[in-house]
Amino acid sequence: MRMATQTNLSVRFCGFEMANPFILSSAPPTGTGEMIKQAFEAGWGGAVTKTLAHDRDLLANVTPRLASLSFAGRSDEAKKLYGLENIELITDRPLDIWLKEIGDIKTQFPRQLLVASIMAGGNDRVGWQELVRMCQNAGADMLELNFSCPHGMPEKGMGMAIGQDPEVTARVTDWVKSVSTIPVIAKMTPNIADIRVPAKAAVKAGADAISAINTVAVIAGVDLETLAPLPNVFGKSTHGGYSGPAIKPIALKAVAGISLDLQVQVSGIGGIETWSDAVEFILLGATNVQLCTAVMFHGFGIIEELKDGFAGFMEDHGFTRIEEFIGKSLPFLTDHINLDRERKMISQIDEATCVKCDRCVISCRDAGYQALTAGPDRIPKVDRNRCTGCSLCVQVCPVWDCAKLVAA
Amino acid sequence: MKNADNYLPPLMSAQEAVVEASRCLSCADAPCRQGCPAANDIVKFIRQIAQRNFRGAIKTVRESNVLAGTCALICPVGELCEFRCTTKLQKPIAIGALQRFVAEYDRQHGMSLLPVKEPNGFSVGIIGSGPAGLSAAFELCRLGYDVEIHEAEDLPGGILTYGIPSYRLSPEMVKDEIEYVKAMGAKIITGSKIGKLAEFSEKYDAIFIGIGAYRATPLCIEGADIDGVYQAASFLKDRRIAELHGKPPMINLGRNVIVIGGGNTAIDAAQSARLAGCEVEIFYRRSENDMPAFKSEIQSAKKNGVRFHFNHMPLRFSVTGGRLVVTFAKTMPGSPDDTGRPAPIMIDSSGEDYEADNILLAIGQEATFEGNCGIATDSRGLIIVDKETGATSMPGVFAGGDAINGGATAVQAVADGRCAALGIDKFITENRQSR
Ligand SMILES: Cc1cc2nc3c(=O)[nH]c(=O)nc-3n(C[C@H](O)[C@H](O)[C@H](O)COP(=O)(O)OP(=O)(O)OC[C@H]3O[C@@H](n4cnc5c(N)ncnc54)[C@H](O)[C@@H]3O)c2cc1C
Ligand SMILES: Cc1cc2nc3c(=O)[nH]c(=O)nc-3n(C[C@H](O)[C@H](O)[C@H](O)COP(=O)(O)O)c2cc1C
Ligand code: SF4
Fold it and tell me: pLDDT tens across B265-309, in order?
């Protein structure tokens, strides 16, 4: 029998002791104070408000503002989502209402982290500084500077327009820091050659933490009836920001890169859906994680499974505090030149679990090294001399742990 | 001899479980959960499987059902949770098989206990160690009570141990789940038959009665005491005892067996006889649709070669030329009786003779409490309780399981035990304050 344990999920972020590392990112799930309260009630450790701005900077939203890359898959599978594109703008609610709600939430939930996400133009010093003062007076625990919204706002010199320019990033961060009394997080865009450059500019200008990533600029698809790209807004379309499982690898690289290069706490964002996704971000340097699309699809209730699975991981590895494994996977990362070129692995197919689809045979034949052949028994045989250990067969094999690489 | 392995489908692999769990649509109102008497948080445990958090998943199930693995094997899921699954896109999610997968995972990786509150100094006595008693004990242990279960038989488990055949309910699973309840803190005292309730209740702050309803209803017709006529329940118990102690059974059946009845006991007796190599026929006095046995069990029996005769009512047993003869009258459905089903009306009383070597009777069960205890019961001897709390007419005495419903499902008994445990906690908390 295994004794019941109580795993401590708390973690310190910019001096704030969070009850757990799960935060709702700035997005539709944090669209109103009431929704944030619901989420805190459900057990979320923190929330970043939907991005606030001066009323003069708000633009009306369009419909529809979402499109997705879904995969119907086999006929017995329900539609599944890989990535979500949105062309939604920042909040469309007046600032004074938001400020009142921030105060309300903090009175009711003093122990949950409440971050105010804010946005103004790259030349608007007064605008930024007013927002900072208003939000900190209202009671927000921290600020998140939205340098990263990839659609709509950049056309007005906001959002990603700032995050793509390290100079502007540094300038705005400096304005904010000169009046802020609470910690400041700069939220980065992945739509740039090297995300570490603006991150470094923000940190140098005084940012207390970095959050990464915001959405990836994309076009989700084209409607083959109307021939209009998606989402189709009454005959016109525009590129949008991509989120959900599809962007997780992009986000992991961003978080790892920033963590390796800069002495700064990172809030990891991008495609997190399960407890194991969250663990991966923390292993690569994040101190906590933010989620949006997973909540848009499954609701606030997923916090239960996130916390439980996360605690199970810690129990299995004997970790008693999250701090013990933040960045624990970073030392594995090195430049390609330093990888071992001497040792080799080759493919091995487990005959007992092989389902004889021979997908690996086709892949190796047409995109590999012609090392696999299937005899009359339909079980692939590996030619040890031809196999170069690329692992394509492992990737295409539909069975867990059937095709694997073993020492050559 | 038939192979007993045919009765249970193979256990899912981890990959099969994750793929199956990933099909779940996580419906907002979770109709599956509404179909489960124990209100298992099915959406949550299935999402945990989809995320490969198998240990978390089994803990979720045990929150509402300590006998997660046992119920996964014997629940009539096609009439409960899976019946309610709304995925119209495809076949229902295999909820029972997924629950079985995580329960087996748990057994193989060291069963995960749930947290227990500090001891609160109060004690509860439980009569009966079937699903109802085990579930009540588990919930009370979690709440910090000192719990003692008294069981009349040599081994705990009730019908799980002495009734349901091992080809469809793994005795190892039952044993491990009973050990689990013990590890949570419950003491089980076997060979302790409670007769006098007044005396018993003096020792505890509250009592839970989970004595089941396993006394077979006698069939009062001519020849019912002839040699070779057995109660099906006794036959099943004899088989289980023989297996448990590694001895040959006391009851040995001849080649042709007639089973009379239409409940799970009838089906289990018929299938067990079939497994022993007999030719088996079931006679039931109503129609197939009115059979109380689970539909899946009836299908399984048919598949395994048990022959059914519906609308047949026994008139008398006799012996002719060394063989047993049952005389049956044909019936037709009449107006509904107090069970809501059409009463069987005899068409002609002349009857038709059927020969057999043995006859197994499974016409119903009754509550078994013998100690006259002053608790209010209904006309069938079933204990009357308050639905919200499980409280009986006597303050501080609670009841659940077959003893209050006359025989339903193991998961219903688990739900009753849990409900009564919460009722007991409320009763003790309120009493303590008024003291
Ligand atoms: C043959 C058969 C097959 C079944 N198949 C299924 C199935 O497939 N699926 C399903 O969900 N349900 C099935 N059921 C129903 C299910 O087994 C019962 O609903 C369930 O076991 C009831 O649990 P319980 O705790 O109320 O009673 P029981 O399991 O009957 O346990 C009562 C316990 O109390 C003890 N006891 C009685 N009197 C005293 C006393 N005075 N002092 C001390 N101890 C006492 C008894 O010895 C027994 O151990 C089946 C029932 C039978 C008979
Ligand atoms: C519909 C939608 C609206 C969003 N709005 C904002 C926003 O107002 N401000 C912001 O900083 N990020 C916004 N985001 C980005 C998310 O906060 C998050 O960075 C991104 O979706 C990646 O995380 P995910 O994969 O968990 O969704 C939005 C995302 C979506 C899908
Ligand atoms: S999700 Fe709600 S608000 Fe959005 S289109 Fe559907 S019904 Fe309307």
Answer: 999 999 999 999 999 999 999 999 999 999 999 999 999 999 999
Q: Specify the residue for token string 């009463």.
A: B343
Q: Does B183 touch chain A (CB under 8 A)?
A: yes
**Gap between the Cα atoms of A116 and A185, Å rounded:** 10
CA of A291 to the centre of ligand 2 (A): 8
Contacts of A314 in chain B (CB under 8 A): none
Of A304, A332, A360, the position where a domain reaches its end is A332
B250/A contact by beta carbon, under 8 A: no
ω before A213 within 30° of 0 (cis)?
A: yes
**Do A400 and A277 reside in the same domain of the chain?**
no
Burial of B228 (0-12, 13-18, 19+ CB in 10 A): middle
* Ligand 2 lined by A215 (C-beta under 6 Å): yes
Q: Measured between CA atoms, how close is B292 to chain A, in angstroms?
A: 34
Pairwise CA distance, residues B171 & B177, whole Å: 10
ipTM of the complex: 0.86
Regarding whether A376 and A307 lie in a shared domain, the answer is no
Instruction: Measure in Å the smallest separation between the Cα of B109 and chain A Cα atoms.
Output: 9
For the CA atoms of A6, A7, A9, A12, what is the dihedral angle to 10 degrees? Answer: 100
Question: Do A167 and A207 belong together in one domain?
Answer: yes
Whether this prediction's pTM lies above 0.80 is answered by yes
| Cα→Cα distances A47→A26, A106, A177, Å | 7, 11, 21
> Does a cis peptide bond (omega within 30 degrees of 0) precede residue B218?
no
Structure tokens at B3: 């192979």
Residue B235: φ, ψ to 5°? -60, -45
pLDDT tens digits along B108-163 = 999 999 999 999 999 999 999 999 999 999 999 999 999 999 999 999 999 999 99
**Domain edge (last residue) among A297, A332, A367:** A332
Q: Could you identify the residue written with the tokens 């349901």? A: B164
